[in-house]
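Title: Prediction job returns without error message
Component: structure pipeline
Severity: low
Priority: P3
Assignee: unassigned

Description:
Job completed but the reporter wants confirmation the result is attached to the right record. Sequence as submitted:
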Amino acid sequence: EVQLVESGGGLVQPGGSLRLSCVASGFAFGTSAMSWVRQAPGKGLEWVSGISPSGSPTYPNSLKGRFTISRDNAKNTLYLQLNSLKIDDTAMYFCRKDAGNYRGQGTQVTVSS
């Protein structure tokens, strides 16, 4: 059974940083493409970043330079470093196994002064 457990969210002021983690189990993490997606209140899912099994990252142009995705295949863990956070980054953040579109329960990021 595919399991994805996110953590690391919280309340942060604008300009602050957070590091999200996602521990994966139940599948071959090291050979799986992974992504982070988010959903803001009242909005649809937005793709935030993706990473190949070998660690090559991709980002939407709107988020390049502020977010960094990485992975540790030995620990079956996916990461997302969020820097220079803005109020508009407030959302539930999910990690996703791209094949099969599996998502975890999410971790809430709230950016507020």
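Comment from assignee: result matches the submitted record. The first strand starts at residue 3 and ends at 7.
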